[in-house]
Amino acid sequence: MTGMHDRVNNKTELMLASLSTMMSHGFKSSKQDFTFGPWKVTAAKNHIMKSKDIERLAEEMSMPSLPEMLFGDNVLRIQHTEGYGIEFNAIDALKRVNNMEDAVKVACAQEWQESRADSEHSKEVVRPYDWTYTTDYRGTLIGDNMQIKVTETAERIDMEKLKAREQIMFFDDVLLFEDELHDHGVSMISVKIRVMPTSFFLLLRFFLRVDGVLIRINDTRLYHEAGKNYMLREFSTRESKIAELKNVPAALYTDPNEIAQHLTLKLTVCEKLELPVIQPQTAVNEVLQ
């Protein structure tokens, strides 16, 4: 029965995810705020960045080109009433892309670069760079006067606990960027969050499929239980060459949720995000006196 419930849950999430992705491709901007205790969750979706803005940004970032669909104003933010928090945005995700090295050397890489080389603003020499836009982005810490402290930990997110039947009070899925790699696959990163009565859970997923070559998934999971003075963040990299996936139906290659379990786990990093300790105002006043 539990398995069926999980499948129904997964189907609902997938349906919601594809629906919100379709909406973010459109021209309707939206901004949703949801309050969870002292936290405010904000999901903002806006238009695709204009090509002239993308070109200017590419110049600033020393990259020959940026993803075709770049949602530079899209953001998912989790902010405490004290000002600190964490947010997920496309520009910071792109800053983690290696702009010095062509990481996946395949026949289509040359063809892909040549297809863009004749654009009016391209450089005379096409610099090598990671044309797959692979990023190990895990979020951007925010807060002027106080910030969350990050330390490695052995503690893991209890995924079983997350499978419990809890009402989903808020759900959203925000696409940050997507590129079809000149019809040779897909590179995309999106972030989704669900808020339950006692906790929230977030998944930032970078998904790369280079047709005939490889599939890579970089996942960042973030979990916070109400009342605890920390969040747990787990980052993982999974990757397999297509040749290693011979026993997996090709239909699954395009579905990150399905293919993830078949990919080889290459790296896991578990972190504790400790929340700042707020000194009581009275204690501060006594010290001042």
UniProtKB/TrEMBL annotation:
GO biological process: chordate embryonic development; negative regulation of apoptotic process; TOR signaling
Pfam family, one: TIP41
A cellular component term, taken from the record's GO annotations: cytosol
Spans traversing the lipid bilayer: none
Annotated family: Belongs to the TIP41 family.
Protein name (Swiss-Prot/TrEMBL): TIP41-like protein
Organism per entry: Lates calcarifer (Barramundi)
